[in-house]
Amino acid sequence: MHWLEATYHIQSNPGDIEARAEALAIEQSIEMPPSAVRQPEILREILARVESIAQVGEGIFRVVLRMATDTTAFQVPGLINVLFGNCSLQEDIELVDFHLPPSLLSAFSGPRFGIAGLRQLTNVHDRPLTCTALKPQGLSPTQLAELAYTFALGGIDIVKDDHGITNQHFAPFAHRVRAIMRAVAQANAETGLNTHYAPMLAGSPRTLRDNLQIARKEGVRMVLVAPMLIGLPVFHEMVEDLGMAVLGHPAFAGNRMAPALMLGKLFRLLGTDATIFPNYGGRFAYSTQTCMDLAQAARAPWAHIHPSLPVPAGGMTVERVEEIVGFYGLDTMLLVGGNLLAAGDHLLERTQAFVQKVAASVEKI
Amino acid sequence: MHWLEATYHIQSNPGDIEARAEALAIEQSIEMPPSAVRQPEILREILARVESIAQVGEGIFRVVLRMATDTTAFQVPGLINVLFGNCSLQEDIELVDFHLPPSLLSAFSGPRFGIAGLRQLTNVHDRPLTCTALKPQGLSPTQLAELAYTFALGGIDIVKDDHGITNQHFAPFAHRVRAIMRAVAQANAETGLNTHYAPMLAGSPRTLRDNLQIARKEGVRMVLVAPMLIGLPVFHEMVEDLGMAVLGHPAFAGNRMAPALMLGKLFRLLGTDATIFPNYGGRFAYSTQTCMDLAQAARAPWAHIHPSLPVPAGGMTVERVEEIVGFYGLDTMLLVGGNLLAAGDHLLERTQAFVQKVAASVEKI
Question: CB distance B164–A81 less than 8 Å?
Answer without folding.
Answer: yes
